Amino acid sequence: MEQTINVLDKVNSPEDVKKLGVSEMYKLADEIRHYIIKKVNTTGGHLGPNLGMVEATIALHYVFNSPADKIVFDVSHQCYPHKFLTGRKEGFTNPEQYQAYTGYTAPEESEHDWFKVGHTSTSVSLACGLAKARDLKGGNENVVAIIGDGSLSGGEAYEGLNNAAVLGSNIIIIVNDNEMSIAENHGGLYKNLKLLRDTNGEAECNFFKSLGFDYYYIEEGHNIEKLIDLFNKTKDLNHPVLIHMHTIKGKGLDAAELDKEHYHWILPGELDVNYSPSQGGNDYGSLTASYIEQKSLEDNSIIAISPATPGVSGFSPEFRKKVGIHYTDVGIAEEHAVAFASGIAKNGGKPILAMMSSFVQRTYDQLSQDLALNSNPATLLIFWGGISGADATHLTCFDIPLISNIPNMVYLAPTCREEYLRMLDWSVNQKDYPVAIRVPAGDANPAGQEDNTDYSIINKYKLEEAGSKAAIIGLGSFLNLGRQVKSALKEKLGIEATLINPRFITGLDREMLESLKNNHDIVITLEDGMLDGGFGEKIARYYGASDMKVLNYGAKKEFPDRVPLQTLYERYRLTPDLIVEDVKACL
Amino acid sequence: MEQTINVLDKVNSPEDVKKLGVSEMYKLADEIRHYIIKKVNTTGGHLGPNLGMVEATIALHYVFNSPADKIVFDVSHQCYPHKFLTGRKEGFTNPEQYQAYTGYTAPEESEHDWFKVGHTSTSVSLACGLAKARDLKGGNENVVAIIGDGSLSGGEAYEGLNNAAVLGSNIIIIVNDNEMSIAENHGGLYKNLKLLRDTNGEAECNFFKSLGFDYYYIEEGHNIEKLIDLFNKTKDLNHPVLIHMHTIKGKGLDAAELDKEHYHWILPGELDVNYSPSQGGNDYGSLTASYIEQKSLEDNSIIAISPATPGVSGFSPEFRKKVGIHYTDVGIAEEHAVAFASGIAKNGGKPILAMMSSFVQRTYDQLSQDLALNSNPATLLIFWGGISGADATHLTCFDIPLISNIPNMVYLAPTCREEYLRMLDWSVNQKDYPVAIRVPAGDANPAGQEDNTDYSIINKYKLEEAGSKAAIIGLGSFLNLGRQVKSALKEKLGIEATLINPRFITGLDREMLESLKNNHDIVITLEDGMLDGGFGEKIARYYGASDMKVLNYGAKKEFPDRVPLQTLYERYRLTPDLIVEDVKACL
Questions:
Q1: Which of residues 371 through 400 in chain B touch A, CB cutoff 8 A?
Q2: Which of A72, A132, A321, A386 could disulfide-pair with A528, CB 3.0 to 4.6 Å?
Q3: Is the Cβ of A330 closer than 8 Å to some Cβ of chain B?
Q4: Chain A hits for B585, Cβ within 8 Å
Q5: B336 vs A156: CB contact, 8 Å cut-off?
Q6: A298 near B CB under 8 A
Q7: Which CATH number, 3.40.50.970, 3.40.50.300, 1.10.600.10, 3.20.20.140, labels domain B284-438?
Q8: Which of B132, B346, B392 sits opposite A303 (nearest CB)?
């Protein structure tokens, strides 16, 4: 292909797109697709969403005048074509620049990007804000929001649509309907979208019209001429417009068109191997799925719930088929998911709701009011919690402050396979508490020691190894770091430190903490998450009036953006050597 | 009226309602209304919502078999008629029992109540959970959710409806359409509700049908026979049903029917005086409104935003009229409100979003992702933050842990009129930070000292009075308690304590904290909110490795329910005497 590429060579900005003829634009689409596939297969990343938006993005930049006209992408995992056309194509065509740009829109990269986003369902509200400021200031630019159909199930999207419809001025909302969320779509709305597709947008019963939008349907979402015509028609109007655009997720790559869920996001090199459904692994997701599969055979009231991210928690297509009614995907609707789980628990069911740490923050009020205030015994599994080198939009270090400060919640931090299964089984079968479990990342390796703990005795820490002078409290996945710190303290300072596995994030074991005062001078807390509002600060508060010294370790309050994990650990002094240094300084 | 009352005498449970004839039921409605008005005018409380639901509640208990059939009330501030019919009428007929029951549904009061709720838009999701558990267990009872039209603008309600529509089994959702939120309704949906009312539910373009519901309209929401007919028709169906019921908010009380916003909730005795629109007071709400009114004359880009609670922040009907386009109510849609404000700020506008502390937790993800991650300079005003004797559903002590642990946010705690105005003006005009201000409660009395602080110097605490040995850090409204503690320390222990007004909740003044080490042994923090995850713990962490003792004071992690404030203060040792006792014990 390399020999024939030439349109992309002359496109460095939206201005250049406007100079192209239609056939050149199609060629440009091919070229962009080629490079997206190559780049994503090298670095990993979002594949299907980007392949589906190539033609529409070209047409957008042909018709609208970015950045005067403002384009807001929802989730923004479909913004790669936009990056090609706004001065950032090198990030895709030149392997040495593959890491130059984020996988999301980023105002610091380009004046054509308005927001740093990564969570879903936000674009309409954000665009409403841009439009409102324009109206206050007397401007006349177009404001465009692009939102995928999967994002429409989120409450914020609806709140935005309901308000956008009565904005009273220009806003153009493009619903990119590719018939998919990450997994398939769920909810009544999606039948209406199908009806609208089946009737070429003509059906009278129309969700968008019911909200008051001037509605346009375009069946051929990859037909550049038709897209340009429609965008021209809806440009510069003085009222809210909704364009319902039908596209194909993964367009142009057979495998991605065929298995839309799998190729939503891929790992490096994944296109070079034949994909076969997972046979279950040794990770905590697979372990969770196996547990639920087994339990659902014995207990009708078990139900696993996912808010559109089944892959996060091991709920593979095979698992979903096997457990049948014992699984439900509520779509991107975390608020509903938590209230729903609370209702199930209230009526004697045993809900197990699995979410990614980064997304649990989408439902704080429901955790507090619908669930915790009612003390209903639902089980929440929080996956991937911890400090990470991820994009700033998908950090996973905030779940401890968020969940652990809600009254009545019991938040548990297992450190190995045995503890996880014991906690999970206890949680599912008890009736007293809303319980969240911070599922460890990585392989679910056994510690080799059976766990027979009665977790109904709340806030009882486990003494892993008794020592003196210094006590290390290693929470969850950082118990292992605690072991390393213990070794280093012995080696460098000759201290035989105590090691504690607290297991409960949500409360203090006052008896154990009090007893440490007898023969310890310092307590070190280690948590795989943000320090502010977290676990360690409560230990510091507990000892505030005493002579006990306390050193808290965890992440700083910040939004690091793709900072390598090791760099973060150094920054936060989360290494045995640095910790020993600090201990030495304060003894 | 007392002489003629007799139907209510024989109604002690839903069973008794089923024995009544229609004319008795109308008489019962009159009696219930009489007592609601009398009781609410004595104790204060929700008036309009309850008056509007009398007939419908009677019809519900006539047709359905509670508690086998399960009725879930949204917000539940319309559940008083339900309480009359489920064994709790004494709480309304007997003045000595007026405080016996909460103003919301409460499972601990009655088996007919399923959830403790008070925040809005939750009923459909909670009811879906009850229904799902029923289906898993093989039950066949009816599950009914009652939701007001005002609650429909909230994202959780939509997420719930979208999922309820595809539940595949029995659920009956009653939309109580009284054409009102607390203030008037806002959003495109409400035009559709009007269209449906105007066409007796016949219009093809129907929001509820677009989601897939089997839809029924009832115009006469106070006609008991028609209600009974419709409920009988929709009972025991095997699929999701939506009943759109038109009622009159405040029904039966002229004043309440006429000014629906004002009589949504009243103070004790309010019906005995002629209501006249507020002329502006000395409270912080009025002060805020005056500031915005003035500023909007000078600056086109100013906009005040309320998520359906304008009364909380002084945005009276008169204010709204005066400022015109410089005010917008987005309806109950806190998530939209925050993202919208972020978008406005991004495009050069100056948004001032005012919310009640209890409701800010409905929008954590938007505060973090849409706003803070983008560092857009929006101003949030958090009203009524602090420990309170309110219902467990409306506590206001969680906003510090919630907001202050989000990176990039600047959360300010003014202690007087001058500081508040200075902070507000700084926030509105700066471009660097998303800022939240914890607006003090009560009168906006001047401290008498002009505030010329440059708040762009972040995290600079104010030394109110220099002393030694003990330092008191009194946050926001608790600076005053700090003054009292200072006096008590002097009087009882002879200590001339230092008093600090930190003003910044979101960061530490390391320079000042470090300097305290020179001549202080103990630092006392006072915060008007929950200790866990809050301000004081960060001070404890800061001093963890030093010899400084730290005592943190604030609320315990719990959901107190209508516990008198003074009792809570004692429980939390938040009195000068108790604090001095603690200081004495640890010096």
A1: 372-374, 392-393, 398
A2: A386
A3: yes
A4: 545
A5: yes
A6: no
A7: 3.40.50.970
A8: B132
Q: pLDDT tens per residue, chain A (587 residues)?
A: 445 569 999 999 999 999 999 999 999 999 999 999 999 999 999 999 999 999 999 999 999 999 999 999 999 999 999 999 999 999 999 999 999 999 999 999 999 999 999 999 999 999 999 999 999 999 999 999 999 999 999 999 999 999 999 999 999 999 999 998 777 788 999 999 999 999 999 999 999 999 999 999 999 999 999 999 999 999 999 999 999 999 999 999 999 999 998 999 999 999 998 766 556 688 999 999 999 999 999 999 999 999 999 999 999 999 999 999 999 999 999 999 999 999 999 999 999 999 999 999 999 999 999 999 999 999 999 999 999 999 999 999 999 999 999 999 999 999 999 999 999 999 999 999 999 999 999 899 898 899 999 999 999 999 999 999 999 999 999 999 999 999 999 999 999 999 999 999 999 999 999 999 999 999 999 999 999 999 999 999 999 999 999 999 999 999 999 999 999 999 999 999 999 999 999 98
The secondary structure element, H or E, covering residue B320 is helix B317-323
Burial class (CB in 10 A: 0-12, 13-18, 19+), B276: exposed
Q: Which ipTM was obtained for this model?
A: 0.96
d(CA A524, CA A467): 13
Please give the Cα distance from A582 to A577 (Å, whole number). 9
Q: Are B73 and B82 in contact (CB under 8 A)?
A: yes
pTM of the model: 0.97
Residue B300 touches chain A, beta carbons under 8 Å: yes
Is CATH 3.40.50.970 what the domain over A2-266 is classified as, yes or no? yes
Place of tokens 């091919």: A30
Collect contacts of A458-462 with beta carbons under 8 A, ≥24 apart: A458/A410, A458/A433, A458/A504, A458/A507, A459/A504, A459/A506, A459/A507, A459/A508, A459/A509, A460/A503, A460/A504, A460/A509, A461/A500, A461/A501, A461/A502, A461/A503, A461/A504, A461/A509, A461/A512, A462/A500, A462/A501, A462/A502, A462/A503
A541 to A446, A509, A548, B540: CA distances (angstroms)? 34, 13, 11, 5
- DSSP character at residue A109: T
- The reply to whether residue B125 touches residue A339, judged by beta carbons under 8 angstroms, is yes
Contact A538 B532 (CB under 8 A): yes
Asked if the Cβ–Cβ distance from A186 to B192 is below 8 Å, we say: no
- Nearest CA to CA, how far is B111 from chain A (Å)? 12
Tokens representing B230? 């419709």
Report the chain B residue with the minimal C-alpha distance to residue A139.
B347
Are B137 and A349 within 8 A, CB to CB?
yes
* Domain spans in chain A, listed from the N-terminal domain onward: 2-266, 284-438, 462-586
CATH classification number, B2-252, choose in 2.40.10.270, 3.40.50.1000, 3.60.20.10, 3.40.50.970: 3.40.50.970
Chosen for mutation from B335, B408, B538, B558 (greatest number of chain A CBs closer than 10 Å) is: B335
CB spacing of A333 vs B373 below 8 angstroms = no
The number of residues making up chain B comes to 587
B284-438 matches B462-586 in fold: yes
Return the exposure string of A316-337: e unless at least 16 CB atoms fall within 10 Å of the residue's CB, then b.
bbebbeebeebbbbbbbbbbbb
By CA distance, what is A72's nearest residue in B? B343
CB-CB neighbors (< 8 A) of A136 in chain B: 300-303, 325-326, 344, 349
Residues 58-97 on A with a CB inside 8 Å of B are: 70
What type of residue sits at position B15?
E
